[in-house]
Amino acid sequence: MRPADLLTYKQEGRPIAVLTAWDALSAALVEEAGADAILVGDSLAMVVLGHATTLPVTLEEMVLHTRAVGRGLQRPAGQQPLIITDLPFLSYQCGLDEAMAAAGQVLKNSPAAAVKLEGGEPETLAVVDRLVRSGIPVMGHLGLTPQSVHRLGYRRQANDPIAQERLRRMARDLEAAGCFSLVLEHVPAELAASLSQELRIPVIGIGAGEHCDGQVRVTADLLGLTAKQPPFCPPLLQGRSLCVDALKGWVGALQSSQDAQTTNPTAPAAPHY
Known about the structure:
Layout: H1 3-12, E1 16-20, H2 24-33, E2 37-40, H3 44-47, H4 59-72, E3 82-86, H5 96-109, E4 114-116, H6 122-133, E5 138-143, H7 149-152, H8 161-177, E6 181-185, H9 189-198, E7 203-206, E8 214-217, H10 219-222, H11 239-263
Helix pairs in contact: 2-4, 4-5, 5-6
């Protein structure tokens, strides 16, 4: 998969499925599930590293996890999902040269074929233009942008006409700057649907209704592994409870076996694997 393939999918009316991964195991599951693209999102700061927000994750950690994701893929190279890696907070906001170096480090040192960055302000548009002109594919991200959590919170964005027109303008600007696709997160469904029709590039929704060109989800949320679910992503199964119950069963069986050995030394011991 290459970024241009997503545009072909949009032109053909084929929904685009994007899932996150953060290591070899999650990547293998996502690939086997048939995802078109894998996003190594900075959400791994919260899902994997235990941070309260996405802000603390470093560029080096994003590269490390992207390399692990690449090692988890099993299909031949030409049949693997597209890997897109988030540029973390302050890796691209401090100047064009720094942004270029950060994106280049991702593509040089990992199997990622594209990067994603948040926002549509003039400074961000300049970064997108610089990266694209240098041959680096860029996915945009508007709406709820987690790197701006201290300013925006985790609330739904673009709820009034003025904010919606501003977001619409930024979406058009990102397309003009060269983004190959755009993530819209936690915005009104009507706005996302109209932008999907208006823009030539694919619009990938998350909490933005069902009428986008594709959908992206945090895999841990879909599997019910996170302690707190986002309102727009009900879990497909109660993965956290299933895992805990299974592990409790193993621990309980081991302890029961030990107790039996203590009271009856001739009792058979539990098998060890």
